[in-house]
Amino acid sequence: MRFAEELLLLLHSDDSGYFIPIPEWKMSCALAGSILMDLALDNRIDTDLETLILVDATPTGDELLDPALDEIAREEKTQSPQFWVERIARHANDINESVINRLVNKGIFEADAGGVWTLSGKVSRSGRYPMVHGRTGEEIKGRIIRVLFDDEIPDPRDMCIIGLVHNCGGFRAMLEPEEYELAEERIELFSGMDLIGRTIGNAVRSSYRPPASMRPVTHPTLPEVGLRDILFSKPFWEKNIPKFVAEKVREVGPVFKLKTPGREMVVLAGAKLNHWAGRNGRNYLRTRDYLENFQSEWGTERSIASMSGPEHFRMRKAMRPGVSHKVVEDRMEELFAMGRRAIAQWSIGKVVPGEMACQRFVSDQVAQLCASIEATEILDDLLKFEYRALQVHVMGLLPKFTLKTPRMNRYRKRVLELYAKIHASHTPAQREGKRRDLVDDLIELHQSDPQFLPETNLGFAFIAPIIAGHYTASAMAFAIYELLKNPHYREQIVAEADALFENGDPVGTDFNMSAIDITHRFAMEVLRLHPVIPLHLRTAMNSFEVEGKQVPAYSTVWVVFAATHFMEEHFPDPEKFDIDRYTEPRNEHKHTGANAYAPFGVDTHICAGSRWTELQLVANLLLIARHLELEMVPKDYQLKLNPLPKTSPDKNFKFRVTGHRHPIKGVSEPGNSTTA
Prior knowledge:
Blueprint: H1 3-11, H2 24-41, E1 45-47, E2 52-54, H3 66-74, H4 81-89, H5 92-105, E3 109-111, E4 117-119, H6 121-126, H7 140-149, H8 156-167, H9 170-174, H10 177-191, H11 195-206, E5 224-225, H12 227-231, H13 234-237, H14 241-252, E6 255-260, E7 263-268, H15 271-284, E8 285-286, H16 288-296, H17 309-319, H18 325-330, H19 332-343, E9 351-353, H20 354-371, H21 376-394, H22 406-424, H23 428-431, H24 438-448, H25 455-485, H26 487-501, H27 517-529, E10 536-540, E11 544-546, E12 549-551, E13 556-559, H28 591-594, H29 610-627, E14 628-633, E15 641-642, E16 648-649, E17 654-660
Parallel strand pairs: 5-6, 7-13
Antiparallel strand pairs: 1-2, 3-4, 6-7, 8-10, 9-17, 10-13, 11-12, 14-17, 15-16
Helix pairs in contact: 2-4, 2-5, 2-8, 2-11, 4-11, 8-10, 8-11, 16-21, 19-20, 19-29, 20-25, 21-22, 22-25, 24-25, 25-27, 25-29, 26-27, 26-29, 27-29
């Protein structure tokens, strides 16, 4: 492995899924130093305390090293190691990205959609890497800890790494104060034993760039989008937030200030900003502020949505099995049974309110799969209470007293009853022989660490996925709209459904990509064109510079990740519903490192159940296509959006069941004595 790979592995934190916090410039210099160390060991450069000399300009064939080698070869003057550390440090983000990708490709890191990385299970169990050139393959932390505390003599390579980590302050951040005091003498000794390591390490330690607030740099004023710009925008009147932001990005750039009467937000949008938020947002943006009062209405003081850092990583890791697509795969029979029970309520000839029908359809499934309960009777109350709490505490559209009305108090009481119902249904005796669900995982976490997940936070954790199911339900409503609007795609989806259901209900493993190709791409296009949650609302906890603009601490920030869905450079003719975007050679969803297609968010709070959502959406679409003939009501209805508290079809979106393609067996229609 290269030095940069082992540097990141040594600084990786198992608790946070990211890296031990080191000042950004020091870390950039350490990565630069690691590149120079490898070039020295590959006999491309040589150094002493004063100069760095090019020995051989022949490329190494390693894309990690050759850009720096080329830059050194093109420099006419002989420069110092510190000069080159600072020069190469400017490319630290690219180096960091490349190194992480290499570690993932080697099977050492496992990537999570939320922008965190964990050591693969194989490495964690064995303490060895799957492939390392010329090395024993032993995991680096074990090697270095033995050197520091067990009097083991390091080889020259490990001396270099110790010096590099020491000079960027890594050991002080890694070790407890008592541990560092014990190891300090050996760290200092080994840091100075290798000439190349000492030379580059000294350059890393002495390189200094003051924080932004101390630099005499004048940043351009943030462009402003005001009330007049808003009122003269067609997408604004269409209530399409990401489309509106995409329009403004074309006019003023990807970072701007959005000013409305009494409110001011900094907007970040575009593929580069999506990537920035995914990699750097954890250091500058937090979610807690706007969720505190919302959470208190549900009787909790903290949830996975408001957690940050190691706490969020731990909670996400604990919940991962319970919101995995495997849950849907394993319980497909139940999913179809609940789906048929829901669509049996859509009697032939009856006009069905699209959004509300889908809310009941999907949320009932989510409640069963996550919490193993039937919650049909309370779902409407839960939904209304959630909407009101969001309007009051997150969007600031209604005064607080509107959550204290007798009706809202009644809904709150029913929420508390739901907490108790879920808890009471998950005793060991009642769960014996049943597939483990998310609530089982949460109860186990609570019992093992009641301080981390106390009883006061447990109830909301139970129903958070049911609340999230409301967003999947809106995506389902959009999908039915597009199904009715695009009959040529409907015919293809019907053909896929008939093939899958021909010999009875398919099981999870039948949903391979070749069997659901059309329906899957259809669902992807629904999520692109109709992002239910188009932005992250954050608070800038530290000031930061992005795209040459300075964003002050305490700013309210909108990361409008879905704005890219309406940008011509990423999705040509972006308002056209076109599922061929996701086939070769177009593959538009993979453009700009997949940062342009972001229906589930972009930072550490990216939807943990994204694959669940896609599979549930596909399975339900196929079920509907198998059984029902539908028509829009009225037939010429044009979609209008309801943008708050999430994007959904407005209440005028309705459809009618005109017939059954195949009987809904085992479920009677309301008012009928026989199965349709």
